[in-house]
Amino acid sequence: MSRTRVNNFSISLDGFGTGEGQSAEAPFGHAGDRLHQWMFATHWWHGPGGSGGVDDALAQRFEPGIGAEIMGANKFGYPGWHEDPAWKGPWGPNPPFHTPVFVLTHHTRPSIEMEGGTTFHFIDASPAEALATAREAARGQDVRIGGGPTVVRDFLAAGLVDHLHAVVVPIVLGRGVRLWDGLEGIDTQYEVEATSTPSGVTHVTFTRPGV
Amino acid sequence: MSRTRVNNFSISLDGFGTGEGQSAEAPFGHAGDRLHQWMFATHWWHGPGGSGGVDDALAQRFEPGIGAEIMGANKFGYPGWHEDPAWKGPWGPNPPFHTPVFVLTHHTRPSIEMEGGTTFHFIDASPAEALATAREAARGQDVRIGGGPTVVRDFLAAGLVDHLHAVVVPIVLGRGVRLWDGLEGIDTQYEVEATSTPSGVTHVTFTRPGV
């Protein structure tokens, strides 16, 4: 069965999935790279010399079994990217997705085929419509909701997420975009686990029972 | 040296230290007792049959070494308690403090001596002034900042907390009073540890270096 998953989604202790002031140079705004240092230190990201424990095992779950990703316009690019016809995302010629990627935007454009199996499609759709489209493209594999926080929140609110892996980083960002707003009681729909690791982060997984 | 401590301070995954709709019957509003079930299950609270692991060890730190507590008006009673001259707090004749307790309120009244060593004093003071008063009453022992979230936040913002023990409970409350608001970067002033336990909570400790 094809599940809808969120993987490696970092938030601060005060719940922000990104900082304030996002730009082409600072995709997470004033958060810089502080939300993702735990991930950069893993073998999965860093290669030889990277950590090999629970952080790495969970980080490794990002790719296997995923057949498509859905992301928000703010993840695909800096504010205003849609006015740049040459913009192909911030990841270079071979983005780390290697599947179809559906970018939710009111400014649709023709699909862009990248190296390594990633193709960006631009759709103006509700969460449920986007998921139906992505699921078809995933050919029976899982669909990843790639963020940012607003998109993850919208899919959680719509009841469309089967598995959420959030990573609570013990920093207080103070401002940015919050993950949990408007999701009162969402925990009651899931089996919840929390696991802290020596890097200082706490992995929180929400898994829908029976899925 | 006398330290200023916060112990056993529970917050939701979205950072709320209390729910919305506080009343005499529901001191934590719509959160009910969900923020404190981990604590009620410990040997410290429950007695025989209670849990004896990390949750219990940290919960036990509540009392030893404390010589005074400072609390906010909303912890001492339901909204409007100051209009009830007979109100002595919600804890019964023998409150669980056993020290002088300084209640921050614009509606001061004469001190109330309770059983078991607790005396309530009512003061209209800034965090720094209240701490100076409580520290003198503590006679060299530590001062506990007892909450609610607004009071803990005010003391953190004023740089007056040496040790914070927050307990992140994996529920999404959605509304209430947040602990972390206005505290951007506060983590950089502390050594931070996060430890999850089998009950599902994550103990987060902020300890000021060298204190």
From TrEMBL, chains A, B:
Q: Which Pfam families match?
A: RibD_C (PF01872)
- State the InterPro entries in the record: DHFR-like_dom_sf, RibDG_C, Riboflavin_Biosynth_HTPR
- Tell me where in this chain the Bacterial bifunctional deaminase-reductase C-terminal domain is found: 8-184
Cite the Gene3D superfamilies for this sequence. Answer: Dihydrofolate Reductase, subunit A
PANTHER family, per database record: BIFUNCTIONAL DEAMINASE-REDUCTASE DOMAIN PROTEIN, DIHYDROFOLATE REDUCTASE FAMILY PROTEIN (AFU_ORTHOLOGUE AFUA_8G06820)
**Protein name, per record:** Dihydrofolate reductase family protein
Organism, per UniProt? Streptomonospora wellingtoniae
